[in-house]
Every structure is written in structure tokens, then in C-alpha cells.
Amino acid sequence: xERVMEKVQGNRNGWSFFSLPWAPSVNHYYQRSKRSLFLSQxxxxxxxxxxxxLRPCSxxxxxxxxxxxxxxxxxxxxxxxxxxxxxxxxxxxENAGAYENDVQIISLSIVKHGSIGKPGRxxxxxxxxxxxxxxxxxxxxxxxxxxxxxxxx
Length: 153
Fold this sequence. Notes:
five-stranded mixed beta sheet; 10 strands
């Protein structure tokens, strides 16, 4: 697996953007010993790669909520669950300092695209949502007028 990833990043209309390496699946993120569960070598490598790419990023303060968009570009044509890389991705972003805690994420959109070949990549867009309020129907709305129908974080 190629570990070198071009540092593609930016900020557009309040959205921070990062292009990250393909994340290990949940099945390869952890390793089990007789007594415990721990981060695998692949998991540690991914976490370190993400930290290297996000190093100049300022974390979103814990007082803010986060809206996030994720584009998955798999390294091959195998069938994959859309959420299989999510645990490694969200943990690595938190560890790298993109945000204080992943409980801040109140909106998450994921799109799985066709294979782009090895090594694959994950594009991540996120922005702080400073104020939210509840409506009578329990949906959330942010200051931009985006309504979150699921009723909460």
C-alpha cells in the first residue's frame, strides 16, 4: 500500500477540505490479543498519515457542532459497505486535531464513488455549525437555515 499522499487541502465558503488516504476497514483497524483489543499496525499507520496531512489545521472548538461530507474513492472494484471505513476515518480526524470530539458531528453525508485504482482516497469536507435550535417538530436547524430532520445529535 502506498503511504505517500499528496497534501491536498483548502478552505472554500467555510468548508475545510482534505484529501486523505484510503482508510482500513473496521476488520483491519483493530487487532485482538488474548486479553485486549488494540489499534492494528495498519490502523496506526493510517492515523499517523492523517495527522501528517492535517497538521496545519486548527481544531473546531468543542462548543461548535460539525457538518461533514465524505466522498469515498475505493482502491478496487470489490463490494464494500459504505460505513466500513468510517470508524477509522472519524477516529483519525479526531486524533489529528480536526475537532475535539466526534460527538460534535451532527450531520454526515457519505457518497461512495467508483474505484479510482490503488491506493484509493477519501475526500473530507467539514465546517463548524455555530448555532442550532430545535423546532416544534424536534428537527434541528442551523444559522444557514439547513434543517436536520432526524431530530438531534
